[in-house]
Amino acid sequence: MKKSKDMSFDTKVIHAGEPDPKIEGAVSIPIFQSSTFEYAGQTDYNELKYIRLNNTPNHIALHEKLAALEGAEKALVTSSGMSAITTVLLTFLKSGDHLLAHHTLYGGTADYVKHDLPKYGIEVDFFDAGDPGDWASMVKPNTKVIYVETITNPLIDVLALDAVVALAKDHNLISMIDNTFASPVLFSPIPFGFDISLHSATKYLNGHTDIVAGAIVGNDPHMSEITKKLNHLGGSLDPHACFLMHRGMKTLSLRMERQCENAMAIAQFLDDHPNVIQVNYPGLESSPNHDRAKEFLCGFGAMISFEVEGGIDEADAVMGRLQYPICTASLGGVESLVTRPVQTSHSLLSDAELAEAGISKSLIRYSVGIESADDLIADLKQALDG
Ligand SMILES: *Cc1c(COP(=O)(O)O)cnc(C)c1O
After folding, report:
1. Three-state SS for 353?
2. Using an 8 Å Cβ cutoff, are 259 and 283 in contact?
3. Which of 47, 217, 338, 362 is the most buried (most CB within 10 A)?
4. pLDDT per residue over 262-320, tens digit each?
5. Per-residue pLDDT tens for 223-237?
6. Could you tell me the CATH number of the domain that includes residue 318?
7. Ligand 1, from 79, 85, 106: best to mutate by most atoms within 8 Å of Cβ?
8. Residues 22 and 106 grouped into a single domain
């Protein structure tokens, strides 16, 4: 078998990390439903074979596949995206440290860094997308970590990611990026210069809306430190969920390709519709994020947000008339999903925090699935035309 570094991305999703030789010849890796494995003379606690230590054959295959996909030395799967995020923050931050984070973050992350970290004596400041030249003035002597998302939720912005990496290198900060919305298909944070890439694998990596899982990707020595912390905090992924995630990931490239194509067609349709007052999608040439997305990403993603004429009532009416997208939180599945973020992912934010982040209460977020673009557009047309 060729080494994964010689494979193209589309080949890696199928072949990287697969057991070699195949276990009993099984083409699809079996589920190792065993909490513990026979002692084999290990001298390090973290090397004992045990599900909580994330090192069954199901975990190892996933770790190798994920690391290969993002061009990193190592990867870890976790019990959820939030488990990945909290574990990594707690690995590198301690009482007295300072975290610099972008001001629009996934709702759960935003709430955690704002309300939980300060209880451990960790200071947090938020920077806006504005002028990257201003970010350096926010770095303090105790700043340890800078935290961003590749494509932000729910405004679908793409930051000056090169400036984030440069700032981290200049000030010796650990840079972390939540790469969920881009998926490894669109962006490889580690070769780009980030220290740690994080995923809610619940979304695109698994892609089938049937498990909750997370992933952490990076190089050593960071990954060894994170592994020890994860082994203590206990956010391990169950082998059956590993199996489902592994199966889901095999179609990651195909799904993303179709989802990005569909999203572009839908964004253009929305942009031209008279009842739509704002469309946030970096694929539109008119988007303030277009040039950055083109420079940094291998595609524009499949998340769109938009606002209709008529405020919250009309937004709810449009969502109620949509036939295909299912109205729910979450995203990145094969089926289209739609939500008003202030009701779901961002419901923990106060009015002042929403205003500061520029998130309108009538904003609709559309996670584009793999259905026919023509059907999705016809459906949006009937919903918008009322
Ligand atoms: C969903 C999501 C998370 C949290 O992931 P869970 O798997 O629900 O714990 C974190 N970041 C982003 C960008 C997400 O979309």
Report:
1. helix
2. no
3. 217
4. 999 999 999 999 999 999 999 999 999 999 999 999 999 999 999 999 999 999 999 99
5. 999 999 999 999 999
6. 3.90.1150.10
7. 106
8. yes
